[in-house]
Amino acid sequence: MPRKWTIAIRPTEAEGLRKITKIIGLNGGGFSVLTPYHKSKSGFIAKAPMDLFTLGARFFRWEEGINFTAEDRVKLSYHTDGFAQFSGENQGKIVSGRDEKTGEPKGIGLYTRALATPPVSGPSVGVVVWGIDQFEKAEETDNLLIFDPSDFYYRNCEPEEANLWTLSIYAFGSKSGIPPLKRESKTWRMLYQPHPITAGIQGTVIEMKVIHLKADGVYLGLYVERAVGQFPVPSGWILSGPGNYTQYQKGHALVAVYPRAPIPTKGSTPLDYNAQIHAPSHANKKNTVQQSRSRVKQSLALK
Fold first, then answer.
1. Whose CA is closest to 141, among 35, 1, 7?
2. What torsion, rounded to 10 degrees, do the Cα atoms 71, 72, 76, 77 define?
3. What's the domain range around 267?
4. Fewer CB within 10 Å: N-end or C-end of the chain?
């Protein structure tokens, strides 16, 4: 069984494939999502505040997050016990992992639901890309999971208007139930009815392509949506992960934006190893980028 999958998108029928992201199974320990196919390496990393009662479309101002910077690309890992974190695409570049005594994040991470019963009201991971012509070209091989124009869904736009692609990745765990699967050519597919908060309208049904993480008893359902966005740079990507919020309480979600050039980062803490960050855990502090560097460090280990 494969343990690595490269996701590729064919922007139009007349264009070639572009590599977007890679998914790696962690040998029974969950999975990682990384985006090594774009040249940008300077990133803005954040715990974005989430409140389903007030955020509506879930936009947030940069200064409202618990914010960091990185000089190397990050990957997002979702472990079986519910620990999710950003770590370096290249080992030893980004502060990450858990404290051996407390189990709390050394870098930027949080605890969400375990993969056996993951949240299914929305995607566990999302990848947004724009300026797709700046991503690596791909050759058609059996190692690719391909999304063609016939696979795309469109949100509030016509095909000729859309300028971004959103790859949504839903995790379905062994204890929460797996939607029925069907085989089409070499690809497994499933039909799923997302929560209205995510899908935008009650009763929406999405067809997803499927990856099986056999060691975890987890299936990942993936689909691509197109929409219109405004971006201050010609090309880039956003990697977002699970959160520790619910419909009953506020929390945070993990977000990485590359390149970070247009984002104000004054006061943000670097996650690079060469910055020698040693962050204690103080989850109940209120943190913004205007606060001192030491208090931002204390916010790293939100439970």
1. 7
2. -110
3. 4-148+236-301
4. N
